[in-house]
Design goal:
Elements lengths: L1 H6 L6 H15 L4 H16 L3 H12 L3 H8 L3 H15 L4 H8 L8
């Protein structure tokens, strides 16, 4: 904490930092179609960063499979699927499966 004093900054817990960043993002995002389109473009750009295996896991998670079921369907160990999931979360900037589904369920549309 002394480092923060030297730098003249206030120490904040991760939860406080995340909450303040969320508030800033809500204030900075203007309502309207343009903001929605920009958000979709950003999501698609982030999806393009996924490796083929991460993308396959991402689709299974969106369909509601557990991580263990996803690992079985991808024919990989649970720990490997967990590593892929960590990569997906980091690249898509989400912290949980619920957040992943909320933000990306409309991005990927099933044909038909």
């Amino acid at each position: 904490m002394k480092l923060f004093e030297v730098l003249g900054q206030k120490w904040m817990s991760r939860r406080e930092r995340d909450a303040s960043q969320t508030k800033k993002a809500e204030v900075e995002t203007p309502p309207g179609d343009k903001a929605s389109k920009d958000c979709d473009d950003e999501r698609l750009r982030r999806l393009a960063l996924l490796t083929p295996r991460e993308h396959a896991l991402f689709l299974l998670l969106l369909e509601g499979y557990t991580l263990k079921e996803s690992a079985t369907r991808l024919s990989v160990k649970y720990s490997t699927a967990n590593t892929h999931m960590t990569g997906v979360y980091k690249k898509l900037n989400v912290n949980s499966r619920a957040e992943l589904i909320i933000h990306y369920r409309d991005t990927i549309r099933k044909p038909g």
